[in-house]
Amino acid sequence: MRQTVPYHPSIQSAALRYGRRSGIALAVAHALAGVVAGSIALAATSVHAQPEASRSYSIPAGPLTGVLNRFGREAGIMLSFSTELTNGLQSPGLSGAHTVSDALRILLVGAALQAVRQGDGGFLVQRMPSGAQGSSSSSSAGVLPEVKVTAQAERSPVTEGSQTYKAEYTNTATKLSLTPIETPQTVTVVTRQQMEDFGMTSVDDVLKSVSGAFVADQGGNGSMYYSRGFAMQSQYDGTPNPVGISNNNRNPQIDNAILDRVEVLQGAAGLLTGAGAPGGTINLVRKRPTETFQAHVEAQLSSWNGRRIVGDISGPFAESARVRGRLVVVADNSQSFVDYAYRNRRVLYGVVEADLTSTTMLDASVQYQRDVGRHDYGAPFAGDGSELNIPRSSFFADGGNRTVKEYTLTTLGLTQRLPGDWQAKATFTHGKTAMSAFRDSYVMGELDVATGEGLELQRQRRLTQDFSTNALDVHASGPFHLFGRKHEAAFGLNGSSMHYKSRGTGYAIANDFNVYSFDPMSLDEGPEGGGYSSNTKTTQLGAYGVARFNLNDSLKLITGIRVSNYKELDVTTGLANSRETGVISPYAGVVLALTPQTSVYASYSDIFNPQAEKNVGGSSLKPVVGSNYEVGIKGDLFDKRLHVAAALFRLEQTNLPREDSTVPYDPANPCGGTCYVAADKVVSQGISLSASGLLAPGWNVAAGYTLVDSKYASGGTDGQRYSPELPRHSLRLSTAYALPGTSWTLGGTLTARSKVYRNDSSWTTGDSYTIRSGGLLLVGLMAKYQITPKTELVMAVSNLFDRKYRAYLENKYYSTFGEPRRITINLKYRF
Fold first, then answer.
1. What values do phi and psi take at 333, rounded to 5?
2. Which listed residue, of 5, 519, 711, 792, carries a Cα 20 to 30 Å from 485's Cα?
3. Rounded to 5 degrees, what angle do the CA atoms 269, 196, 280 make?
4. What is the pLDDT of residues 783-794, one digit of tens each?
């Protein structure tokens, strides 16, 4: 069997120099732009093979066939061998730094086999000549006829064990397995290695490291996720996830222990999404079972009494590896830098794959997470929007609160290899979310800074939310020939349904309090009376097709289209809040290869979002459309170990609702009161620069700068900032360098953003106010020590200089503070 996987040297890190004020984002961005431009120019000349170098491996002992498969993937070599030679044999595994040649000799110890280098740079495993076998017990065995398996291995985007921050392939944009330079859009992949190096334990941690993405931390309400000025949607393994990640007090904050990587597609993504927001798609790709045994345990301690234990075991159920399984368990308890707040988490993820035949694979998984805690939604500003001089630890919520978020996702998949190198795959998911908040509360009122009076705690005795979701994706992909050239195509259908029910009781129990002397534990439970409820069901289904045409050796054209149906139903009344049928979402991209390592591209994509507002005739407005135009240049440098990219984008959102001033308000009219027209527009444009992978052997980097300029482009607000609570400039840098000749890896992170603000109106008086947060620069450090080949200790510090800042500007009544300096120590042992 022959493996073709790119070469990835071991992880590393480097010390950072940094500036102090908000101007650093733009200054460093200019430097990064120079690096990207210079690196792409270098790519045209830096294409010569480099001498064979050592790199670190950690491959457990096991069946030789599986061990060689894994080594071929990790080393990125062409490895050919007959399974008749290897089946039934064992390998001692591999640990430490070795050249490819030395590693193969170790892996084949005791097998009476040798690896012979071929003219194409690959290796052929064959029997040793009889004279070289010595006294090996296998020397008398008969020589089997040599069988060379020369088919290319399927492109694998798996990042676990790659020891790099660069992803090789992704299909989030088109369902076609494309390299980064073949994809005509901005896609950022946070790999398993990057998560582990910097102690990223949640999806929020991951997205905070992605340039151009913004995590709006809403405290107990979860987070919202934005890119290019607009919200994003999510997927699991390429299948729609209608309930979202944690937004709007729905799911718990998803734990990273179950993930192989997170792929972030920025810009409109209607081809595979259907209805949604134009910010992009977050694809959570979960871990899969492995063909060889592997297992590890982790124990972590962190600030605010954080204690975390992770167990992960994977491997075949028999030597043939036809049935494989994986189990991940997490117990994570943590208090918060906010007084009284805490969060206790339990995670269980189990997945099984079974090769029913040589061409058919069945997989099934269960993902379960339960978060229990006491949450707050943030701290208030002064009545005029100015910042208060209060500690970040201040808690402004009911001290008797207990919130439980329980999430279960069951997945069933079937993969079928078809003739002609085609493949069909069907995936079905069923999700259940149960959220219950006892004694939930939030702040409102007009604060008198001098006295501390004026605020009140709006409370409800109980809030419950239940979500039941189903999602399906069925598609086929493969090559086809036309006009003497080979092309690729994918087509299929996907859709989802979500039934949402909520109920609140004992609502709007107001308690006046003093902001300087508030005692959260002094409140009673409140009465049971009063309440409200909601019951809606949303369904959508679409068919899509996409093809990548090989126009010539350098020019590729990607075209696609989706046809979508959508309906949101109020289950209580039986009336449709919104409905759309036969909505067309086109996709087009062209990629021109300048050299084997560089390409330029241009693309168009869009997405629609149905509207509930009605026009004067009583009909729903036509959908809001988000259209993304993008041009860019990409390069794979240093033997394809470092990916760099630069892009210009323009995102237009049209058909936004505007109140129809020609029609007076009348509850009896066809609009139900206020009529609207689909007339307003928002334009978001900017630049994106990024680099990910290995700058040099042992030096990993993931860096990016994004400028987003979002403005209204119609009506009375024409030219004004749109969503100014999202930064115009953002910079992210993560780097790690393995010190040569030592067991140490050192690294750090840098996060910078420009100032943000929000204009809004008081809930009680209607007066306008503005809240602000200045430019921000955060620095983090990490150090990893390889105690033994199987044991490592990672120490990380975030917000090194303990900057005080607002994580998100939600409103003047409650907006979260960013996390103070945090120290984490993680001990990991591999079996």
1. -115, 135
2. 5
3. 10
4. 999 999 999 999
Q: Write out the two tokens for 310.
A: 């992770």
Strand partners for 463 = 437, 504
Distances (CA, A) of 644 to 581, 586, 705: 40, 27, 12
DSSP 362: E
**Token pair in block for residue 423:** 């493949």
Return d(Cα 41, Cα 475) in angstroms, integer.
Answer: 39
Cα separation, 229 vs 304, whole angstroms: 33
Strand order in the sheet with 123-127: 79-80, 123-127, 113-117
* N-terminal to C-terminal alpha carbon distance within the chain: 27
Describe the crossing of helices 100-107 and 64-75 by its angle, rounded to 10 degrees.
170
> What does residue 71 show for φ and ψ, rounded to 5 degrees?
-65, -40
Helix (H) or strand (E) holding 35: helix 24-43
* CA dist., res. 454 & res. 452, Å (int): 7
Instruction: Please enumerate in sequence order all residues whose Cβ is within 8 A of that of 641, keeping only pairs 6 or more positions apart, or say none.
Output: 6, 7, 8, 9, 164, 166, 693, 694
**pTM of the entire predicted model:** 0.83
Surface-to-core class of residue 423, CB atoms within 10 Å of its CB (0-12 exposed, 13-18 middle, 19+ buried): middle
Q: What is the DSSP string of 457-484?
A: EEEEEEEEEEEEEEEEEEEEEEEEEETT
The two structure tokens encoding residue 222: 């979860």
pLDDT in tens, 219-260: 888 899 999 999 999 999 999 999 998 877 788 999 999 999
